[in-house]
Amino acid sequence: MTKNIGIILGSTRPSRISPSIAEWLQKNMAQPDLQIDFIDLATIDLPFLDESEQPSTGIYHQAHTQVWSQLVQEYDGFVLLFPQYNWGYPAPLKNALDYLYKEWAHKPVSMVSYGGHGGFQAAQGMALVIRGLKMQLLTNNLQISLRKDDLDDRGQFIDPDTALAPYAFNAQQLGAEFSHVLTK
Fold it and tell me: The NADPH-dependent FMN reductase-like domain covers which part of the protein (predicted)?
């Protein structure tokens, strides 16, 4: 039975490189029993949390929250893909996570952070959020260090496959871990 994994693109910045990383991840995580899709927060475009009820109640008054809840419920697990901004994760990602509660619970999740030093500090902070949402953090989490030589003058990858090649084994292991965890 096919399981659905959503790669949540946590950056909405116009010059972001997360779409290139997401495409590379999708290809390198591929497993016969996984359907891997992109969930782009730039196109989801949630306003800052505007629900009057606590997310833990599951009572959603706003149509955008109801749509977001339904979308998240369609997935069996998630990859949170995000850059490190000033030692933290992007606000749109935290906002999207905060909109919901029980929809996240017990679902496997992996973090793929990136930045000049791999996004280590952002991943540490996000690990606390994941724990608070009762998600199941997988053992394979990538921290991608960006090298200036791999980026063009607009900050985009010259060749994503070459730049991300050192992380290919870890991405394959991540796909295998999702496959294993979701067949238990």
Answer: 4-140
